[in-house]
Amino acid sequence: MKKPIILVNYKTYETSYGKRGLELAKTLERVSIDTSTEIIIAVPATMITRISQEVSIPVYAQHVDGLPEGAHTGAVLPEHIKDAGARGSLLNHSERRVRLDEMDDALKRMKKLGLESVVCVDRYELVVPMGLLYPTAILIEPPELIGSGVSVSKAKPEVITNAVKEIRKVEGVYLIAGAGISSGEDVFISIKLGSDGIGVASAVMKAKDPKKVVESFVLEALKAIDQK
Questions:
Q1: Is 3 labelled as part of a ligand binding site?
Q2: pLDDT for 67-116, tens place per residue?
Q3: Complete DSSP assignment for 150-206
Q4: Model-level pTM?
Q5: Among 70, 94, 177, 225, which residue's CB has the most CB atoms within a 10 Å radius?
Q6: Is 180 a known ligand-binding residue?
Q7: Exactly one of 63, 116, 141, 220 is catalytic; which is it?
Q8: 158: annotated active-site residue
Q9: Under CATH, which number does the domain 5-227 receive?
Q10: In this structure, what DSSP letter does residue 68 have?
Q11: So where are the chain's domains?
């Protein structure tokens, strides 16, 4: 994982699968190459293999279960996503909560498999407790702002600044800010406030010109890092 972190969560939008999902991945790969910036995409489990075989940018799962191999119908295990071609996974998104014991098990196995991990939290008070499980990164997202178009960096900047203070208590874990980010300015502010990058979904997945949107995100992220 490299700063600035730009993480695009495909979720299950109509642009997230099939030909459109693959085309978007290739578009984001072009932006990544042109700007020398790593762009991570979290895609539906059914698209991991197809997309990871076509692009060089990191492909993540959107969720992984911490259950053991065996009789667990419908579970998606760390071993599954590794075999499918994923380089990591989101865990505990507000739309897909995970029990703490299962998350701990999943993270331990992901580390053994060489997979990266991004644990989502909805408030800064959880940054240290989740950080002590030592994921690759913590993604802080107030759920009420997710998909709202109202950025956490503008509506609740204290969420980011407090999370930044907390993450400093945990060595070697990145902090990503998300929820409502929809413009380059939102990205710039988020990183100037101290985050290592941003997580975004609808602003890209529903955009008429996702390339233009992501380019603006990357350019503002790089500018913010230069000014730190």
A1: no
A2: 999 999 999 999 999 999 999 999 999 889 988 888 999 999 999 999 99
A3: --HHHH-HHHHHHHHHHHTTSTT-EEEEESS--SHHHHHHHHHTT-SEEEESHHHHT
A4: 0.93
A5: 177
A6: yes
A7: 141
A8: no
A9: 3.20.20.70
A10: P
A11: 5-227
